[in-house]
Design brief:
By secondary structure, this protein is an alpha+beta fold. Strand 2 and strand 3 form a beta hairpin.
């Protein structure tokens, strides 16, 4: 199993800290594309300003949620890319605060608001104080990014990593089979559809054709990739056809769709499902309740 090690490819000593962000942002991403489309269509009124500011706030909160997942990052290099993007976000936030001040200034220039001199310390703040605060905070954020961004991103990117990140779908399946064999007492069988080295990953969502069979106490499971998802089926949920093949109307989809997911993440998902089935069996005698929920 290959280990992901820090690489200087595309991020040498002369590259700015935001290079990782720019490279990642160019990858296909529906969310990024939607925001860029909104910008290209033009934003010219208060509704656009408020909606985009709210979108930025929601996005930042979503990053917190994403990072809180136990498998949110696989390597320090993943963290470097996120840090690069977050520091760019701070830069843009500082620019937005500065531009907000200019926008208020334009309101005053139209004669539709009056900007008094700042009230000063210990007195109730006015519009002048607000504009001074926007300017000051913007400068502080820019100063923080200038001082910390480059060294932080580079330290994360250069940190050694031994994460067993597979190179393609086939390596993922093989690695999961190996982990399951180590972590379970019962039989685990890797069924191959091609010879080693004979598979070229087309990234068509349907994997390499190999699958893993896992024997449970009362059930047999099959782990595979299909429809751009990692999934687990139960033998008892299959419908045997006249030609001898079996189709499955239900399956358990695992927590990540990443082709080269961390094998232990997938293995934990599989073991969690098997354990839940076992708990259900023990709680209902010999009767197992089969869910028809297709996630």
């Amino acid at each position: 199993m290959p280990s992901h090690q820090a690489t200087a490819a595309g991020f040498d000593d002369n590259a700015p800290f935001n290079a990782l962000y720019e490279r990642a942002a160019e990858a296909p991403n529906d969310l990024v594309s939607e925001v860029r489309t909104a910008v290209e269509c033009g934003m010219c009124d208060p509704r656009d300003s408020v909606e985009m500011a709210c979108t930025a706030a929601e996005t930042t909160e979503a990053v917190v949620t994403a990072l809180s997942n136990p498998w949110s990052l696989y390597t320090p290099q993943d963290a470097a890319t996120v840090a690069s993007a977050l520091f760019v976000q701070l830069q843009h936030s500082a620019d937005a605060l500065q531009e907000l001040g200019r926008a208020v200034g334009r309101i005053a220039e139209r004669g539709e608001a009056v900007v008094p001199a700042p009230a000063g310390s210990g007195r109730l703040g006015n519009l002048g104080d607000a504009l001074e605060a926007l300017r000051s905070v913007s400068e502080q954020i820019h100063g923080l990014v200038d001082q910390q961004a480059s060294t932080t991103v580079r330290a994360l990117h250069g940190a050694p990593s031994a994460a067993p990140v597979p190179a393609d779908v086939h390596q993922t399946v093989v690695a999961v089979a190996g982990l399951l064999a180590e972590q379970r007492d019962q039989a685990v069988k890797l069924s191959r559809s091609h010879e080693d080295g004979a598979y070229e990953d087309p990234d068509d969502g349907f994997g390499c054709g190999c699958h893993v069979q896992i024997l449970g106490s009362e059930e047999e499971y099959t782990f595979y990739r299909g429809d751009s998802e990692w999934a687990l089926t139960r033998e008892s949920d299959g419908q045997r056809l006249s030609d001898g093949s079996t189709i499955y109307h239900t399956r358990e989809t695992l927590s990540t769709t990443l082709r080269t997911a961390h094998p232990q993440q997938l293995a934990e998902d599989i073991l969690r499902i098997i354990a839940a089935d076992q708990d259900a069996l023990e709680g209902t005698g010999s009767l197992r309740i089969v869910s028809t929920d297709q996630r």
